[in-house]
Every structure is written in structure tokens, then in C-alpha cells.
Please model this.
Amino acid sequence: MSNEPIPLILIVEDEPELAKLISSYLEEAGMRTQVCHRSQHALRFLKNNFANLLLLDITLPDKSGFELLEQLRADNMQIPVIFVTGNSIEESKVRGLEMGGDDYITKPFSYPELVARIRAVLRRAESSGDLSLTRNVSVADDPFDFCSAKINPQRLEITMPDGKVTKIGRKEIGIMAHLKAHEGEVIPRKALIHAVWGIHANVRSRSLDQYIVKVRDYCRASPVGVDALRTVHGVGYIFDPEGKHRGAAAAA
Model:
């Protein structure tokens, strides 16, 4: 275990004392933890950070754990989930598992059993490739350069040319990785969506545009400038930091 990356467990539990106890025990077992008491807090955290597993209470103040899982899956976040709840009704367990939950543990529970279940789910997730951030980028991927910045998929961070380090979203990393891999090529919008979100993803053009704006902001802050990523009207985009294909696209 000591030579392996330390897993980060996101605990979503509205009872502060119980959340604190779970966090303390998991950290004693060699894991890192992050606690959220509301589903929206958890959703916001996962949009900007990588976690290996979600320990999810079903009954939360703002929305149910089931609703949170639905939102995560809609956003293509395939994080492994263990439901933790006081509800022992079999129908509730079945619903959680059919929605894509990986396990279900009922309060009260023993902490050794909880740790054992977490480790079992983490092993299954690792073997099935659930360490992906997007369709084309995994948390295990090496850092890569983009517009003179360094992108670190494992930490969801970007180090700008001036040394400033900030968090960066999963989708932005996926888009940058695909643009980098196809530098100098015209990339159709649909091809970019399929590469990052998956071939069956239902992603609106406006949503993609919002992410492209964020990526352009990083280009703008770099020495190559915003023209490194240009729109090919009616087709898609071209990433051309060297300026070799300036005539191939009109600026957005």
C-alpha cells in the first residue's frame, strides 16, 4: 500500500459528527478524505477536483444521494459510489445499485467493514479503468504542455508560464489534451465532443463553447496568445500555437 497513490475519499454526510468520525477512521487506514455536508458542495468539489471514491449518504438537506448520483452521471463523472444510509429497505438498496452505485452499507456499520468495502470497490475501479477524468484523459496520465503552461491531470492543476498554479476542470483538460494531440489540424466540433465526452454524449454546442472560452483564456495568458486556438467557421477549431496555419481559419 505504501508504494501506491493514496486514495481520496469524498464523504457526503449531513451529520457533522458522523462525518468527522468516518473521516478520522479512513485517514487512520491510510486514505485521504474530503467532507461535504450538502450535495451541491460535493458536486462543486468534483467539478474541480479528482476523488477516487464517493461515500454518499442518501438523505441530504438539499437533494437526495440518488439525485446527486444522477447529476454526476449526467455530467459524465464516473466516480465509484458507495451509498451509506440508515435506510435498510431492500427496495432502496436495489435502486441505488441499479442507478450505478458500486456498493451499499447500512448504518450502524463497523469501520473495519467500511474500509474493506472501500478497498474492494477501489480495486474493481482500478481494474476497470474508472480513473478517467474524461473520455480521453486519465488521472494516471503524465503532465503535458499546452500554450507554455503545464497541465497536471492527476492534480487537476495548471501551472502558468509565470509559475502560478490554479485548479482546472476535467473537461478543459480533456479539450486541451485533444487539441494538443491534433495540433495544426482542423478538428470538427462533433469530433471534439466525442473525444472528450464520449460518442453517446448529449452535449449542446453552447456547453462546448463555454469550455472553449475557458481554454482560450489560458492561451490569452500565455506568450502564444489567444490566436493559438481559432474557430474554423461552420466546422470546428484549430490549435496552432506556432502560427503555421493562420490562413486556414478565421479568428473567432
